[in-house]
Design goal:
Elements: E1 2-8, H1 14-23, E2 27-30, H2 37-45, E3 54-58, H3 65-80, E4 85-91, H4 94-104, H5 117-127, H6 129-133, E5 137-140, H7 146-158, E6 166-173, E7 184-187, H8 208-215, H9 218-240, E8 245-252, H10 258-271, E9 277-282
Parallel strand pairs: 1-3, 1-4, 2-3, 4-5, 6-8, 6-9, 7-8
Helix pairs in contact: 1-7, 9-10
Length: 286
């Protein structure tokens, strides 16, 4: 059984994520009152026909501050009862949210005659901050369109249908912005850059020539080994918190060479250990 609670900022893509799960036969409920959550899940769990084996519940700022504050307590109690509850938080940068609301002309749920859009976004971010801090997986949709978000939910969330910790390995380019959905972030811009090799510039870290170039430098191997050792040291603490996901992001300048190679090597390293599932996302390729 899987129980996924989807929360996040208005305009960030919560409905897209919920609809994607519904397409995969999740039983989906949007804007369920938080006070009804324990009763609803209890009925689903005890359904004799086992119809509700996959559940997704949308909860956001429309529930009100008092109910939002109680959500984490309810989730902790459900986890204490050994129920497989995950929190997926969908977010985006403020400027992106402003643009989306401007383009769609939709009303933000917290706007009033006295509260303009920009203030409503800040209020909602503050209201949901604790949920964001305790989310099992955060997806930043600042640079993600609807199609890409659907693909990401399918690859990272829906494909993760077995219990245990999933390592989400993400490469990115610093010049395109820092991802806000990382648990750990590493900077590999200090490593030799294939971009300055004319024959490698238009290739990526997936190509054999770039792989051979980077693997020939000892400092690259040392960097990857150090990152792997760090992650291995701290993974057990995340498992003790019953986390379903751990997102590790590695960035270089453009997000096409060094970070891609390092992520692929890390995924290969941890993929050889059947204890952990891994999924790869090369952000700048999307």
């Amino acid at each position: 059984m899987r129980i996924i609670i989807i929360s996040g900022l208005s305009g960030s893509g919560k409905s897209v994520a919920l609809n994607t799960l519904e397409d995969d036969n999740f039983y989906c409920v949007d804007n369920l009152p938080v006070t009804l959550l324990p009763t609803f899940i209890d009925q689903c769990v005890n359904d004799e026909n086992q119809y509700y084996d996959k559940i997704a519940i949308g909860i956001d700022s429309r529930s009100g501050s008092s109910n939002i504050e109680n959500l984490l307590d309810i989730v902790q109690k459900l986890k204490a009862d050994k129920l497989p509850v995950e929190i997926l938080f969908v977010s985006a940068e403020i400027n992106t949210l402003l643009k989306r609301f401007s383009e769609t002309r939709r009303k933000h749920p917290l706007t009033t005659d006295d509260i303009p859009l920009i203030k409503a976004i800040h209020l909602e971010r503050e209201l949901l901050s604790e949920i964001a801090d305790h989310a099992d997986l955060t997806i930043d949709t600042t640079k993600t369109n609807v199609r890409q978000l659907r693909a990401l939910v399918n690859r990272v969330v829906i494909a993760n249908d077995e219990p245990g910790l999933t390592l989400v390995m993400q490469s990115f380019g610093f010049k395109h912005g820092i991802p806000n959905d990382s648990d750990f972030m590493f900077d590999v811009r200090c490593l030799p850059n294939p971009y300055w090799q004319p024959n490698l510039r238009n290739l990526s870290g997936n190509d054999t020539a770039v792989i051979n170039y980077l693997s020939s430098h000892r400092e690259v191997d040392r960097m990857i080994s150090s990152i792997a050792e760090f992650i291995e040291k701290w993974i057990p603490l995340f498992e003790e918190e019953n986390r379903s996901y751990l997102t590790i992001s590695i960035g270089c300048t453009g997000g096409h060479h060094r970070s891609v190679y390092c992520i692929n090597q890390l995924a290969k390293h941890f993929g050889e250990d059947s204890q952990y599932k891994t999924t790869i996302r090369h952000r700048e390729f999307e």
